């Protein structure tokens, strides 16, 4: 095995490694702004800073850091003049906690506050012709006016009043409570470039009710309309997404796409203002799988035309050319990601990229017609690149980071599923592993369940285990994305059926490889991967030496109605589905030692799942504390993901120590700060 030191061998270095987390282009295409994330000076939190990268051929400037706030900055947008808008926590001398929107002038100078609001700023969009700005911010629904809204927010803060009176569902999202404010669309005139003290005069455009939730607001090029997705609760807990148009002058809201029993979502607005790209999703049930279909909505005729009919995966980032004839987008693709081109006149899709890479933060340089994005892979963290759509050449953009060398080799293989489907996997193997020196195997099961092992991960990074001598298997079983609708369909109605069978077939195939030690193995998974880890624990006896289950679904009868995504899971997991595929029903069959991990702020898979799993696991084992092989790693302040650096260090250290003890028989120490 390799002895070369790297950030993967030292977890303190690994969690401290700087990384890119965003990339944006100015409307004119003459500024490339990257978001770089790193540790703060106390080394107890991550902070982000904005960097300017060279822009196009002939630009010999070196990357330069633009912002240096002690708590970091979040990029909000870039104006038509190239000024950067960002949010940040900075000392301004004001005695309030309102979030501030800063402007950093293109021509140089200090950043200054141009707007502030108690509920912050989200979804900022800038009209490429008129320069008007649209954004989303929360408003108390019973406030009489803007002053009363600010008063309510201030009094709630001063009096530490936290009560929220709900009238409908949902009440939580991911890791935060919904309410008491309701998201509304605001608009503002472009700032006067000659006035260094100009402020954005925000005007509230909408007055949505508490049962209406707006997202994805995009302003038209001429600034006359704002388009958005509006999700409305219609009865009980049933809510459906619609696409709306808001007239900027009058505030009139017009529904463009609406259907009882289906969701319609806004994906992109054409620069010419003549059409929208929409997505449609039929409401799911156990017999109706999740499926996305796309259409072009003609803003002149109000007709929808199906498009991308030769494409059955899901569109990610999307950007439309000025003429509107081409639309570029990202999507999962066969264990990778890709950048695709949609011919909007023909409705056909073609793949522009190749190789093992995945792409995000896609943007179009309208001057040259080139695309920029962050490119990553299983063995490469995100780095900025440019793509020429005509030649399909991808080239690296000069940036203040390099990819670290991984301590092993990446390969892939496929197996045949029971129904004949080809199921592929990545396999990360330590350098030097061979038949004489085989590596123990860790099976890592991805979450979602609609996802794929196709990109770099700082949270579940296989190379941290490879650096310790493990091979890591990353399979894409049934319900994985990037393999067409049929891959979703074949596992949809059997949460623990064909996905489980695919995973076990891939695992057994990996164990037959000469560089893998078939006698030493463990299974790990988070979220849906945690569900599957629990299912594996109850259905494989002592096949695995141990199981790690993070943020996992345990009793799905309970989970389907307590998750923040209850409308989806309540429909997907009907009573028959629960009766057939509930991991909790097999607690008495669990033999392998389990490490249970959960964060208290997890609203996607609520903490009750972890608490119930831990209780029932101990109850079923009936062992004394000294004999108990199971462990519970609890994070009071983390959500579905472990995001703070020192807790991430603890997560990796504890997981690897637990695996070492049960797979290798090594008494690796747990982090001493666990007490």
UniProtKB/TrEMBL annotation:
GO terms, biological process: proteolysis
GO molecular function: serine-type endopeptidase activity
Location of the Peptidase S9 prolyl oligopeptidase catalytic domain: 456-664
Pfam family, one: Peptidase_S9
Record keyword Hydrolase present: yes
Keywords: Hydrolase, Signal
Key word Ion transport present: no
Name used for this protein in its record: Peptidase S9 prolyl oligopeptidase catalytic domain-containing protein
Organism: Dermabacter vaginalis
Lineage, uppermost ranks: Bacteria, Bacillati, Actinomycetota, Actinomycetes, Micrococcales
């Amino acid at each position: 095995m390799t002895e070369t030191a790297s950030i993967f061998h030292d977890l303190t270095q690994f969690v401290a490694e700087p990384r890119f987390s965003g990339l944006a282009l100015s409307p004119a295409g003459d500024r490339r702004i990257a978001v770089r994330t790193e540790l703060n000076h106390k080394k107890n939190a991550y902070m982000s800073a904005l960097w300017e990268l060279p822009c196009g051929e002939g630009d010999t400037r070196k990357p330069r850091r633009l912002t240096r706030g002690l708590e970091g900055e979040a990029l909000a947008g870039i104006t038509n003049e190239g000024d950067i808008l960002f949010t940040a926590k900075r000392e301004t001398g004001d005695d309030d906690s309102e979030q501030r929107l800063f402007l950093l002038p293109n021509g140089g100078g200090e950043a200054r506050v141009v707007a502030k609001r108690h509920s912050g700023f989200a979804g900022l969009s800038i009209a490429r012709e008129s320069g008007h700005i649209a954004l989303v911010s929360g408003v108390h629904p019973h406030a009489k006016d803007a002053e009363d809204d600010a008063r309510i927010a201030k009094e709630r803060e001063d009096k530490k009043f936290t009560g929220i009176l709900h009238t409908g569902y949902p009440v939580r999202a991911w890791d935060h409570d919904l309410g008491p404010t309701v998201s509304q669309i605001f608009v503002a005139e472009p700032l006067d470039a000659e006035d260094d003290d100009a402020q954005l005069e925000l005007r509230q455009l909408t007055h949505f009710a508490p049962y209406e939730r707006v997202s994805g607001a995009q302003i038209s090029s001429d600034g006359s309309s704002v388009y958005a997705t509006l999700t409305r609760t219609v009865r009980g807990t049933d809510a459906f997404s619609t696409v709306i148009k808001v007239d900027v002058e009058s505030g009139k809201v017009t529904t463009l796409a609406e259907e009882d029993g289906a969701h319609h979502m806004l994906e992109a607005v054409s620069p010419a203002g003549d059409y929208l790209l929409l997505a449609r999703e039929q409401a799911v049930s156990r017999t109706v799988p999740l499926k996305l279909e796309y259409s072009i909505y003609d803003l002149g005729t109000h007709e929808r035309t199906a498009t991308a009919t030769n494409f059955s995966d899901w569109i990610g980032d999307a950007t439309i050319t000025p003429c509107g004839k081409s639309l570029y987008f990202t999507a999962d693709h066969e264990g990778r990601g890709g950048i695709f081109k949609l011919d909007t006149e023909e409705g056909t899709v073609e793949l522009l990229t190749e190789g093992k890479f995945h792409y995000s933060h896609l943007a179009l340089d309208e001057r040259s017609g080139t695309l920029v994005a962050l490119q990553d892979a299983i063995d490469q963290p995100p780095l900025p690149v440019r793509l020429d759509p005509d030649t399909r050449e991808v080239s690296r953009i000069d940036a203040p980071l390099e990819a670290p060398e991984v301590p092993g080799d990446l390969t892939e293989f496929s197996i045949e599923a029971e129904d004949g489907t080809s199921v592929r996997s990545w396999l990360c193997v330590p350098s030097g592993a061979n038949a004489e020196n085989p590596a123990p195997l860790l099976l890592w099961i991805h979450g979602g369940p609609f996802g794929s092992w196709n990109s770099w991960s700082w949270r579940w990074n296989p190379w941290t285990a490879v650096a310790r001598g493990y091979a890591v298997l990353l399979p894409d079983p049934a319900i994985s994305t990037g393999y067409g609708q049929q891959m979703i369909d074949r596992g949809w109605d059997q949460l623990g059926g064909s996905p489980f069978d695919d995973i076990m077939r891939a695992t057994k195939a990996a164990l037959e490889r000469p560089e893998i030690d078939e006698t030493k193995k463990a299974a790990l998974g988070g979220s849906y991967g945690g569900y599957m880890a629990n299912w594996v624990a109850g259905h494989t006896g002592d096949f695995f030496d141990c199981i790690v289950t993070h943020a996992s679904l345990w009793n799905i009868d309970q989970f389907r109605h307590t998750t923040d995504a209850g409308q989806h899971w309540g429909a997907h997991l009907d009573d028959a589905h629960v009766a057939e595929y509930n991991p909790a029903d097999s607690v008495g069959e669990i033999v392998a030692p389990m490490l249970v991990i959960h964060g208290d702020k997890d609203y996607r898979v609520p903490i009750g799942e972890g608490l119930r799993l831990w209780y029932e696991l101990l109850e079923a084992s009936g062992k004394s504390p000294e004999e108990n092989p199971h462990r519970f790693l609890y994070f009071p302040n983390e959500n579905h993901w472990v995001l703070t650096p020192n807790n991430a260090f603890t997560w990796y250290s504890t997981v690897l120590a637990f695996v070492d003890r049960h797979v290798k028989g090594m008494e690796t120490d747990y982090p001493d700060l666990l007490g």
